[in-house]
Amino acid sequence: MFKRVTWLTVGFGLGVGTTVAAARKVRQRVDRYQPNAVVDRATDGLGRLRDQLADAVEAGRVAARARELELRTAPPDPPERT
């Protein structure tokens, strides 16, 4: 009889624990897809994209300035003979 009570208690505890964990996961998923959460994630993503784009443009400008300086300081090519 003691074994039955023990295993019944263990089974009940596992069932309750599993139910609580599943309910938490479902609540997290629901909260994740509510309109406020979706808007927050979208604005965060757009902010990161804007930052990356600004960094890329700045890197391009720096490279263009360096190349222009290189071309301006290089000695001119001799004229070609025909």
What do these coordinates show?
The protein has helices at 2-32, 35-73. The chain has 82 residues and is mainly α. The chain has a domain at 22-71. The protein is rod-shaped.
- Tell me, briefly, the overall form: rod-shaped
Percent of residues in helices: over 70%
SSE succession: HH
Structural class: mainly alpha
How far the N terminus sits from the C terminus, by CA atoms, comes to: 111 Å
Spans of at least 5 consecutive residues whose pLDDT stays below 50 are none
Largest sheet properties:
none
Rg, Cα atoms, Å: 33 Å
Count of strand segments: 0
How is the quaternary structure best described?
single chain
**How many DSSP H or I helices?**
2
Mean pLDDT: 88
Strand percentage lies at: under 5%
Short description:
By secondary structure, this protein is mainly α. It has two helices and no strands.
